[in-house]
Input
Amino acid sequence: MSPEWMKKWAEGPSGFLTVFPPGAISMGRNLALWFIYNLVMSFFTAYVAAHSLSMHGGVTYLAVFRVVGTIGLMTYGFGATGDAIWYGKPWRSWGFQMFDALLYGLVMAGAFGWLWPRG
Output
């Protein structure tokens, strides 16, 4: 944090570098990892929803939709906030990610509400 380094940082340019392993990017591998990620997120969402909704008798579609939609938005979207704060990712990009998270949350909420067992 010397004055010379701070001056150089202020003048720019500055950035972060992501280094990938050599070879072609495997879309199949990435899609498989994304699928596993979605399964894990769905499992934990079901866990939280089941425990939070088990306190109520006769759970309705709307109750499931509300709880699961909130968890889905948090699961898929809130992680992007740290990137905007700490890594300088543009807030516009954050907004797009939050919009995508909202869509994922709504789809997840609809599926859970539709498939939730009625007591």
Notes: The mean pLDDT is 91.
